[in-house]
Specification:
Blueprint (H helix, E strand, L loop, with lengths): L6 E7 L6 H8 L7 E6 L6 H6 L4 E4 L5 H11 L4 E4 L11 H6 L6 E5 L14 H18 L12 E4 H7 L10 H11 L4 E5 L15 H23 L9
Parallel strand pairs: 1-2, 1-4, 2-3, 5-7
Antiparallel strand pairs: 4-6, 5-6
Length: about 240
């Protein structure tokens, strides 16, 4: 609980047997986190079996894709605050407190991995990824007049229950370029956002995206395409905000 409000953590999982048990224990921050929802996205290893032996709640998402897994997690989590994270050791559970500090004043609290002092040795955040994330983030700021953001691809972020209920059903992306869509939709809905720096460490197991340069480039291009499409649709007045 955080100030009498419950906290959920969502961990998307695809072949994460090497780190998932450790992640569940790390993100079950004593006295703060009330539930962890692990969304198994068709893992072919022992991930699901391992999760069943932990305190986490296992949910299965058959539609393949990082975006589908996160969207399912947002829908399944029951907390007043919902934190998205990763089960691969790159994020740390104690950084949940950084996000919660701002939860009273903001609907969405975004993490950023671009602060050099918080990038640990071995983290996969070289100059290409760091500045690539920064450029795409600034494109979002420029085209949508969002609050200042510096990282378009940081999974770790917090949604209030109201924000999750508004943003989640409006998301369309099932792939790895979901994260900018959450920011754009939140902005179009008039939700309050802020970005705070979080730690970023080395990964356990093999990365599905940033471990391959070409895949990382593809995801970046998909993000840019998504941002431009939303901007055109918004300019044309075709994006209708209902029920906000």
């Amino acid at each position: 609980m955080w100030q009498s409000k419950s906290v959920s953590v969502v961990l998307p999982c695809y072949n994460e047997e090497f780190g998932i048990a450790r992640a569940v224990e790390d993100f079950f921050v004593p006295g703060i986190v009330d539930e962890i929802v692990v969304v198994d996205n068709n893992s072919r290893d022992r991930s699901a079996e391992i999760v069943r032996a932990t305190r986490a709640r296992l949910v299965t998402e058959k539609r393949q894709g990082y975006g589908h897994a996160l969207r399912r997690g947002l829908a399944e989590a029951g907390g007043d605050y919902i934190v998205l994270a990763e089960p691969d050791g790159t994020f740390t559970g104690r950084d949940i407190l950084k996000l919660l500090v701002y939860a009273d004043d903001f609907d969405v609290v975004l993490g950023t991995r671009t602060t050099p002092q918080l990038i640990w040795n071995g983290a996969n955040m070289g100059l290409f990824l760091r500045y690539g994330n920064w450029i795409v983030a600034k494109l979002t700021v420029f085209l949508f007049n969002t609050p200042s953001i510096s990282d378009c691809g940081c999974t770790m972020r917090l949604f209030s229950r109201r924000a999750a209920a508004l943003v989640g059903p409006r998301l369309t992306v099932g792939g790895s370029h979901l994260l900018p869509e959450t920011v754009i939709v939140a902005k179009l809905l008039g939700l309050r956002m802020i970005e705070v720096p979080v730690h970023y460490g080395s990964r356990l197991g093999e990365s599905k995206i940033t471990g391959n340069l070409w895949k990382a480039v593809q995801v970046g291009l998909n993000m840019i395409g998504l941002i431009l499409r939303y901007r055109v649709v918004s300019w044309l007045g075709l994006y209708k905000v209902k029920g906000a």
